[in-house]
Design a protein that fits this description.
This protein is of the alpha+beta class. It folds into two domains: 126 residues, NADH Oxidase; 112 residues, NADH Oxidase, CATH 3.40.109.30. The protein contains seven helices and twelve strands. The strands form three sheets. Strands 1, 3, 4, 6 and 7 form a five-stranded antiparallel beta sheet that branches. A five-stranded mixed beta sheet has the order 8-9-10-12-11. α1 crosses α3, α3 crosses α6 and α5 packs antiparallel against α6. 39% of the residues are buried.
Length: 256
C-alpha cells in the first residue's frame, strides 16, 4: 500500500501489540519524519518518538490509548504553526499505515516532555503493530458527504472531484470535520467552519491542526494525480468576515 491509498483505508487503531517495532522499519520511519514536507517553512515543528512497549512509565490523559510507541508533536503558537504541525503529522501517520503500523491521534494525552526547546506539545500519536484490523473500506468511515462540505460554483474537473474525495476522508478531533470548500472547475477555496459559540484557545488550536490534516490530503492527492497545486492566501478574503466560516487559503490546480 502507498501513502495515497492509505488516505482511504486508514482507521484509528486503539489496540496494539505491546512489542517493539522491527529495527529497520523504525529507522525508515525516523528518516521519513526528518524529511517530511512542510506546509509553512516559517513554522518550526518537532517530533519525538517516545518508547512505551516496556511500560516503564504510566501514560496519563483523558483520551489515552495504551500503545508501544507515541509520536509526540511539538509546535509553536498561532494558527499557522498548528496547521503546519497537522500537515506534517498526517503525512507521517499515512506513512505508518502504508508500512503496516497502526496509529491513533490522542488529544490531552501526556507522553514525553511538555516542552521541546521553545515549542509546546500539541498532542501525541500512539502507534505500533496493531492488535486489531489495520484497514477499513472507505465507505465504513463516518464522514460527511461532499454535498454537505462543498458549495459548487462550477462543475469541478474529474481531478478536482478525486481530490475532494481524498479531503473528505481526513480525520479530525472528535470527528468534527471543520473544513468547508467553495469549489470551481480548477480551484478550491478552503474555509474552517465557524463555531456558533466562543471556544477556548486549545479548541481553536486543534481545529487549525485538523485544517493542516485536510490540506495534506488535498496536496497528496494532487501529487498522486499529477496535478500541479498552487496554494495561496489572498488578502482580500482574509480581510472579509464570513457568517459561517473562516477563510484559510485558495488552492489552484493549474492542470486539473
Amino acid at each position: 500500500m502507498d501513502i495515497y491509498n492509505a488516505i482511504f483505508n486508514r482507521k484509528s487503531v486503539r489496540k496494539f501489540k505491546m512489542e517493539p517495532v522491527e529495527g529497520g522499519l523504525l529507522v525508515m520511519l525516523r528518516k521519513f519524519i526528518a524529511s517530511v514536507a512542510l506546509l509553512d517553512k516559517e513554522c518550526n515543528t518537532e517530533f519525538e518518538i517516545y518508547e512505551h512497549w516496556n511500560r516503564k512509565e504510566r501514560i496519563k490523559g483523558l483520551w489515552k490509548v495504551d500503545a508501544p510507541y507515541y509520536l509526540v508533536v511539538y509546535c509553536g503558537d498561532g494558527h499557522a504553526a498548528a496547521r503546519n504541525a497537522g500537515y506534517m503529522a498526517e503525512q507521517i501517520v499515512l506513512y505508518m499505515t502504508a508500512k503496516g503500523l497502526g496509529s491513533c491521534y490522542l488529544g490531552d494525552t501526556r507522553a514525553g516532555s511538555a516542552k521541546k526547546d521553545d515549542l509546546g506539545r500539541i498532542l501525541v500519536i500512539g502507534f505500533g503493530y496493531p492488535d486489531e484490523p489495520l484497514y477499513r473500506n472507505d465507505d465504513e468511515a463516518h464522514r460527511l458527504p461532499l454535498n454537505r462540505l462543498c458549495v459548487y460554483k462550477e462543475e469541478p474537473s474529474t481531478g478536482v472531484k478525486k481530490i475532494l474525495e481524498a479531503a473528505r476522508m481526513a480525520p479530525s478531533s472528535l470527528n468534527s470535520q471543520p473544513w468547508r470548500f467553495v469549489v470551481y472547475s480548477d480551484r478550491i477555496y478552503v474555509f474552517a467552519k465557524k463555531e456558533l459559540l466562543p471556544r477556548p484557545a486549545a479548541f481553536l488550536k486543534m481545529r487549525d491542526f485538523d485544517m493542516g490534516i485536510v490540506l495534506s490530503h488535498i496536496l497528496l492527492a494532487a501529487e498522486e494525480l499529477w496535478i500541479n497545486p498552487e496554494l495561496t492566501t489572498e488578502e482580500q478574503f482574509l480581510k472579509k468576515a464570513y457568517k459561517n466560516g473562516e477563510y484559510i487559503c485558495t488552492i489552484n490546480f493549474n492542470n486539473a
